Amino acid sequence: MSTATVVGSGPNGLVAAAVLARAGIEVTVLEAADEIGGGTRSGEAIVPGLLVDHCSAVHPMAVGSTVLRELGLERHGLRWRLPEIDCAHPLDDGDAGVLHRSVQRTAAGLGADGRLWRALFGAPSRGYDQLAADVLGPLLRVPRHPLRLARFGAPTVLPAELLGRAFRTERGRALFLGTAAHAFRPLNRPLSSAIGAGILTAGHRHGWGVAEGGSRAISDALAAVLAEHGARIETGVRVRSADELPASDVTVWDVGPDQLPGLLGDRLPARVARAYRRFRYGPAAFKVDYAVQGGIPWTSAAARAAGTVHVAGSARETAHVEREVHAGRMPQRPFVLVGQQYLADPGRSVGDVHPIYAYAHVPYGWAGDVSGAITAQIERFAPGFRERIVGTLVTDPASFAGNPNFVGGNILTGAKDLRQLLFGPRTTLAPYDTGAPGHYLCSAATPPGPGAHGMCGAHAAARALAYLRR
């Protein structure tokens, strides 16, 4: 029997391990922390029984992930829950851009921009399950559905600010740019529309779901798949060199690319090691979890029913603060993403005290305290919010960086600039290959990038299986 070692148990490492184990490979997963899951972990905090997600929280790309479906996680307890409204982007005048799962309902609420919204997202979302085969992998390859990909991809090449000018209403522009801002990059750069458009298209097909019982339910279900196929998981094992690994035929690394030169040493070709050392990280997240009595008193009725709320003001303000953060300057009013997962999964709350998840985009490695600015931004669109706060839990960039893949607090595992978005961690058409025989990279630094979808792990495992067959 062939053997495999997977280093790291984030969602991609666990998916890679599961794909290999299902193929009959004897798999061992090694995790440095005492708990599996990486960014897909949850736990009680602030108030006994109150459940918070530590990093990854809302999963529009994971609900319809082909590999998660193939692995049958529902058989192991994973349940997706959807809010009444996927996302809202409130404005200072009380209006809001409102994202429903239905393209038609979203378009109806955008007035003059409804026709454009249908044109951008109607056909791609209807065909998303076929489109996903092309967008959830390396962009530079022969597509399986070239016409469908071209129809979806042509607008996404544009900078988000430029595409946003096609919207005639502020609610339409703000909703689109707020979603594009999930990429943590300036919205005036080419391809800055791509990640936002992918999230919107996937969401219109499958919804902006949350995992019942917290994001840890994704990790728990993957661990159950591994157990079903005889794989082993060892926690508390920090790997400092490939020389420390058990003998195995292939090794899959769920780590940041910049770690590989130290881990693999002379096994890496010199040119690959140089490329990995040049890998760039982007802006960081500064997160505050709140325990809130009665929930957030949003002025916008839509925001009160939305699983995700973009707290950013106008489209122009959103674009401005993303440029500032990328330049290393901390804006007074940052872009804040608020998660109200309890609306879809009420079991996370304790009575009428609800967990509120919120993070701001901040410069890489930011060491200042942004918790007051996050609270002020929410208060701006929900007067009276401060008075409802029962307690808080702060996770700053240094705390996120306790996960070695989140260098400088960059929870995306790398800057999603043009080169890294197109190629991954180095300029190659085989981003999962390290150049060291039998060693593969599966972290969110590889295409299609961050999220709990597990597709980076699936692609790396496919490369490893092809190597074993050879």
UniProtKB/TrEMBL annotation:
**Gene3D superfamilies per the UniProt record, alphabetical:** FAD/NAD(P)-binding domain
Residues of the signal peptide: none
Q: Which InterPro entries match?
A: Amino_oxidase (IPR002937), FAD/NAD-bd_sf (IPR036188)
* Highest taxon of source: Bacteria
Q: Where is the Amine oxidase domain?
A: 13-258
Annotated coiled-coil segments of the chain: none
Q: Which Pfam families has this protein been placed in?
A: Amino_oxidase
SUPFAM superfamilies xrefs: FAD/NAD(P)-binding domain
- What molecular function terms (GO) are annotated for this protein? oxidoreductase activity
Its assembly, as annotated, is: Interacts with COX5B; this interaction may contribute to localize PYROXD2 to the inner face of the inner mitochondrial membrane.
What role does this protein play? Probable oxidoreductase that may play a role as regulator of mitochondrial function.
What is the protein's name according to its record? Pyridine nucleotide-disulfide oxidoreductase domain-containing protein 2
Question: What lineage is on file?
Answer: Bacteria, Bacillati, Actinomycetota, Actinomycetes, Pseudonocardiales
